[in-house]
Design brief:
The chain is of the alpha/beta class and 275 residues long. Helix content is 27%, strand content 21%. The chain has seven helices and twelve strands. The strands form two sheets. A six-stranded parallel β-sheet has the order 3-2-1-4-5-12, sandwiched between helices. Strands 6-11-10-7-8-9 form a six-stranded parallel β-sheet. Strand 1, helix 1 and strand 2 (36-42) form a beta-alpha-beta unit. Helix 1 crosses helix 7 (253-264), helix 2 (63-73) packs across helix 3 and helix 5 (196-205) crosses helix 6. It is elongated, with a radius of gyration of 21 Å. It starts with 11 loop residues before the first strand and ends in an 11-residue tail after the last helix.
Length: 275
């Protein structure tokens, strides 16, 4: 068939919510396809975010109504919720907005961490519960007698630990935290991925006897769990918040891309079709 007679494929608009590693990988894959217009939306909580490929917008939408309006006004054909597992509210907003605007929605959710042999995990439901559990844990002996906590739950939740005046915290975050935060605290500005060797050295250098983390999943920040297991350091793990039900899910960017192409090609995209 001559080129002039070839049918022109419509350009599909895909909106990706989130600046996670998986979101950036998916954007990189999709922007290579000229039949797709890819927009990534970042919350704007990090001063210098790693920008994904393609078009980028930064900031909120104004709730589910605002997101639904944006989906309509920008003729979005598919919505991918690739936000952080602890973003929480945005996933429910995405589900409501997608239903209102009649836009297909997929949740790209990385698998959570699973404890292995030798792990000493203390699962909790929230940051408040993590703060309550900390003083009750048996800890490794330290020269100072003060519990030394490696806190990797992000700078936005430090207020939950501000009342623990008998603990010393090592806090790792991309941007410097603001008060309220624990009075005895050292901040380490860093961004993953982190190496196992680096995490071993960090636990040793700072004489860490308790690790507090969220079950964010992903390999980029998992080495701290291995280092803690090797050192016999207990880990307080904050479980993930609930997510909307009835939404098809993908565990990897590759599965998400498959869902999109199946959707646009008219094949099966029911929940569980790409599991």
């Amino acid at each position: 068939m001559p080129d002039a007679a070839r049918p022109v494929r419509p350009v599909r608009h895909v909106l990706i919510l989130g600046g996670t590693t998986e979101a950036r990988r998916l954007a990189t894959t999709l922007v290579a396809d000229p039949s797709l217009h890819v927009t990534s939306s970042l919350a704007g909580r990090v001063t210098t975010p790693r920008l994904p490929a393609g078009e980028v917008r930064i900031g909120g939408f104004g709730g589910p109504e605002g997101l639904a309006r944006w989906l309509r006004e920008h003729a979005v054909d598919a919505l991918i919720d690739a936000t952080h597992p602890f973003a929480g509210t945005i996933s429910f907003h995405a589900a409501q907005a997608a239903a209102t605007a009649h836009v297909p929605l997929l949740a790209l959710r990385r698998p959570g961490w699973v404890p292995g042999p030798g792990d000493v995990w203390h699962p909790v439901a929230s940051l408040d519960e993590a703060a309550e559990v900390l003083p009750t844990l048996p800890a490794l002996p330290t020269l100072s007698g003060t519990r030394r906590v490696f806190l990797t739950t992000g700078r936005m939740g430090l207020s939950h630990f501000a009342h623990l005046t008998d603990h010393w915290f090592l806090v790792r975050s991309v941007d410097a935290p603001e008060p309220p935060h624990p009075p005895h605290m050292t901040t380490l500005l860093d961004r993953g991925p982190f190496t196992l060797e680096g995490e071993r050295e960090l636990l040793h250098t700072h004489r860490i006897d308790v690790l507090v983390t969220k079950d964010s999943g992903a390999a980029a920040t998992a080495p701290k769990l291995t280092a803690a297991r090797e050192a016999g350091v207990p880990v307080v793990v904050v479980r993930r918040p609930p997510t909307p039900t009835g939404i098809p899910e993908a565990a990897t960017p590759e599965q998400a891309a498959t869902w999109l192409y199946d959707l646009f090609n008219g094949t099966d995209n029911r929940p569980g079709a790409i599991a």
